[in-house]
Amino acid sequence: MKGQVKWLDGAKFVGESGSGHSVVMDGPEDLGGRNESLRPMEMLLLGTGGCAIYDVLSMLKKSRQRVVDCRVELHAERADAVPAVFSEMNLHFVVTGFGLKEAQVKRAVELSAEKYCSASIMFAAAGVKVGHSYAIVDAESA
What we know:
By secondary structure, the protein is α+β, with helices and mostly antiparallel strands.
């Protein structure tokens, strides 16, 4: 995996992945940014959510669950010192579907947390307290 990040001006950067996709990052105004885009640490948090939700949906599809919507709500705390690393992170999955089996949803979230999500597992290995939870919404009642 390759990529590069190039400085544009102030606290604004553009990152380009090895697959050719780009994203703009910016900082807060008090640090020379214009607050026009994501901060780098926000991208790490969102990337972790993307990694985990991909795993969960993939497993639910393989187990033939009728998922119609899924989101992962992310919350992270950062250390109050430099470096301001993540100290805690929680991923809460909200899975909506028809006749979803709780055991399947629970297992998908557990497997993502323990085996498949490289991002959350990497943070946990670095000492971040990473929690996972889920809620199931019945599409017929929603």
